[in-house]
């Protein structure tokens, strides 16, 4: 039995990659293949895939005892992304290929029985971890090369077949590269629907602008056809572009969820995710057998999660949002361990005022208890986390073209200016918008004068606001001050924040 051969691959734990060293020894017992290091069922089946792929690649499979040890041994290994590394490890242990090129190289890909390389999920977070661990190269299937090339500082190469990888390892051919990909999105204001298409609804348009400027959550209540969905879809055009680190984090989440696509552009547009109200809690938060996959709240990270017809959502699904709204992440526990997915999103809710939802409220046929029961599906603790609430009215006049409201570009300019002011104020603490600032900071380091806070104090003493509600109203007041160019909120800003907190309560 000769010394073990060593190759590298990467395991996934949530959206974090974990480098895996694969040691291979050949000989010293009854012929067979033994995988150790907590492999799951799909990885156990790799023994047959790897053997067939090696034979169909024109290489001899050793008729000896083969032991493949995956380290760290305490980490559960799942999926088929280790196939290429296992095949290279066996052939390196037998001396069929030299180990030189395999040093510092992460090998990812599933093998078909005839030796073709098939794409796998999660390539981007895997290679980010490989680079951070000091690896300098990566070999991946051609279908995910664009995704692999998003990682700076790593020489990403691709192959169509295992035979190509083995020839490259032997030094008889080169593998294709792709230049590092950049952001390819159009300007967010141009890509999003136009805000001026929405007729009327001045309060709702103003609330949408405040929500975009401060990262606040928004509830719109009104009859069908008043523009709730139209407004929600237009908030993305008001949000700033994602930074490169945020775009990479979002791309990693999409990669794990299988939503990145083969072209894999590094999108800098804030995501807009709108699941149907029949979606399960697992689809909303994340889940699945084995290691849980990210759900809609994580796919909306640094963007917008829109829940239309929210009273039709199960109460358990709506209340499950409370922790992500506060903490900005989702923790999912399974038998294989606990994974964390980032989930810092803006929540936009839309609801009809009652089940029958006539165009005009006076035509409602619902009893008062039915109306109360309908909106009571939005629990008090969830509504307490919603900063802005808007009561929308029916559209009774079709505005002429010259009477259309402000366009996306005009409102976006104000939003970006307000965001820049907030970033400058909070940059030393790492907060990106007013909605992320803890209430303790607003009540201590940035405390407002008693005359400004008088209405908040009165509502708190009367039991009409919770302490959380006070904090959220102050955050909205700071956003209103940023939009107006003032240095600090005044009494009018606080009163306006309370106005928008009460408007959707009816």
UniProtKB/TrEMBL annotation:
Highest taxon above the source species: Bacteria
CDD domains named in the record: AAA
Domain AAA+ ATPase as annotated: residue spans: 214-396
SUPFAM superfamilies per the UniProt record, alphabetical: P-loop containing nucleoside triphosphate hydrolases (SSF52540), Ribosomal protein S5 domain 2-like (SSF54211)
NCBIfam families xref list: YifB family Mg chelatase-like AAA ATPase (TIGR00368)
Family membership: Belongs to the Mg-chelatase subunits D/I family. ComM subfamily.
Name the record gives this protein: AAA+ ATPase domain-containing protein
């Amino acid at each position: 039995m000769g010394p073990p051969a060593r190759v590298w691959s990467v395991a996934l734990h949530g959206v974090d990659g974990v480098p895996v060293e694969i040691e291979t020894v050949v000989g010293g017992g009854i012929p067979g293949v033994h995988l150790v290091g907590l492999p799951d069922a799909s990885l156990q089946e790799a023994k047959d895939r790897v053997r067939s792929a090696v034979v169909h690649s024109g290489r001899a499979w050793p008729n000896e005892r083969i032991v493949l040890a995956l380290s760290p041994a305490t980490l559960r290994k799942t999926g088929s992304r280790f196939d290429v590394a296992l095949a290279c490890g066996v052939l390196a242990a037998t001396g069929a290929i030299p180990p030189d090129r395999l040093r510092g190289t992460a090998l990812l890909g599933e093998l078909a029985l005839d030796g073709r390389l098939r794409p796998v999920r999660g390539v981007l977070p895997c290679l980010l971890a490989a680079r951070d661990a000091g690896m300098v190269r990566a070999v991946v299937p051609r279908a995910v090369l664009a995704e692999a090339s998003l990682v700076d500082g790593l020489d990403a190469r691709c192959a169509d077949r295992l035979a190509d990888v083995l020839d490259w390892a032997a030094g008889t051919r080169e593998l294709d590269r792709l230049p590092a990909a950049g952001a390819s999105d159009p300007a967010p204001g141009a890509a999003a629907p136009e805000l001026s298409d929405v007729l009327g609804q001045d309060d709702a348009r103003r609330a949408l602008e405040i929500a975009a400027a401060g990262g606040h959550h928004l509830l719109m209540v009104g009859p069908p056809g008043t523009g709730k969905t139209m407004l929600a879809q237009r908030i993305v055009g008001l949000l700033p572009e994602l930074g490169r680190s945020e775009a990479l984090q979002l791309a990693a989440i999409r990669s794990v969820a299988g939503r990145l696509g083969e072209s894999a552009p590094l999108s800098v547009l804030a995501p807009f995710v709108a699941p149907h109200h029949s979606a399960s809690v697992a689809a909303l938060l994340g889940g699945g057998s084995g290691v849980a996959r990210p759900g809609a709240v994580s796919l909306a990270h640094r963007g917008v999660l829109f829940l239309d017809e929210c009273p039709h959502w199960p109460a358990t699904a709506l209340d499950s949002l409370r922790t992500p709204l506060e903490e900005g992440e989702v923790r999912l526990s399974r038998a294989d361990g606990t994974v964390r997915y980032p989930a810092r999103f803006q929540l936009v809710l839309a609801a009809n005022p009652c089940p029958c939802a006539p165009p005009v409220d006076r035509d409602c046929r619902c009893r008062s208890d039915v109306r109360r029961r309908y909106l009571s599906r939005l629990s008090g603790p969830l509504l307490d986390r919603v900063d802005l609430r808007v009561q929308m009215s029916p559209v009774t006049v079709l505005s002429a073209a010259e009477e259309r409201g402000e366009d996306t570009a005009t409102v976006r300019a104000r939003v970006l200016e307000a965001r820049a002011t907030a970033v400058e104020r909070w940059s030393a603490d790492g907060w990106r918008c007013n909605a992320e600032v803890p209430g303790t900071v607003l009540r201590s380091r940035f405390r407002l004068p008693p005359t400004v806070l008088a209405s908040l104090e009165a509502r708190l003493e009367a039991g009409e606001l919770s302490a959380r509600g006070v904090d959220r109203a102050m955050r909205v007041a700071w956003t209103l001050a940023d939009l107006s160019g003032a240095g600090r909120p005044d009494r009018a800003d606080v009163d306006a924040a309370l106005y928008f907190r009460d408007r959707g309560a009816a």
